[in-house]
Prior knowledge:
Na+/H+ antiporter like fold
Amino acid sequence: MSVYSTLCFLAAAAMLIAFVNSKIGKMQTTIAITAGSLILSLLIIIAGHNGWFHLEDIAATQISKINFEDFLLKGILGFLLFAGGLGIKLPHLEDQKWEITVLALGATLFSTFFIGFSLWGICQLIGIQLDLIYCLLFGALISPTDPIAVLAIVKKMNAPRRISTQIEGESLFNDGFGLVIFVTMFTIAFGDTAPTVMGVTQLFLQEAIGGIAYGFILGLIFHYLISSTNDHSMELLLTIGIPSAGYAFAEVIHVSGPLAMVVSGIMIGNWTRYIGFSKESEEHLDHFWELVDEFLNGVLFLLIGMTMLDFSFHQEDWVLMAIAIPLVLVSRYLSIQLPYVGFSRYRQYNPMSVKILTWGGLRGGLALAMAMAIPAGVMVIPEKGIDVREIILVMTYAVVVFSILIQGSTITPLIEKAKVWELQNK
């Protein structure tokens, strides 16, 4: 079966789960799809181990044909981030610019090193010889919150404006900085030459600043293209050109495509929406991109659940998975609480802010895609065939699944408490 056919069947399965959930479960759609795919994966594995029927190898083979890293990072990510950027209100972003900047940069850096050094110390205590650089690599890929998971779950719960803006803005903008940290750690771990301060600075300027500048230029070009036509269909079709050809060209010129999509999405959503689109297109813009967003998210979250079929689990993996989840949560709490000590000196915040930002700092497909980019073969426990890639991958998977299923499904009471406080203090 071809990759295209596999994706078609996965999309149909995602839509079926979403439909059944809408009639019976009433869970948030992406949570239901992830849970459904995990249950299906477990049933296939259990059935195979008990000899009922042998679909495990067939399913794993089909899933492995889809290069998850390329499918997300070089494929649908541009569409999902552009759709997220369209929904960001620029005045709200302006009001929270310093908070978002500190959280996207400082919190990510703090979390990377806290997780890295803590994991290394724990591994030494339990007798797993995982080098510090690999622990820091895990910290780098798991620290940035995932904009796809955050926007798909938290955004739709109608949190208070400031909290919602902070968590959405942080998740959309921490990609560039998180990528620089990850690439630096990756180069130290697997590269032939050691990175320099000049090299890291150049990488940051090229990827992050270059991505923002490119996104602005891209948004400007498409603003004028959209403004030059009154054809309703053409106006909406032109918006597709940004996350497709525009995102692909970002890779050609070596700038951050994700940041470019966020910036251009914000421009189209806040500028072109009101002075470039015809009245009919303005009314249908959000509906059109919500449909694209829902469809691609369905396929992505189904893949996250089904990816388990391609893993091998050892006893040491389960131990590290159990360690990774609370470690990432503690790191997230500290990286939010410390900046809020400073924030609170200048303005009043909802008392639930730290809790919601901590519990709502979801991880998703982006972290998993970066973990899958780690090369295999660097052995940690040779006698059992456990390498660095396997350890980092299973820890990442545990954190991702926990954040989507547990954190995503239990954050509502925190948001409701925040809403009550907002009403009482208006």
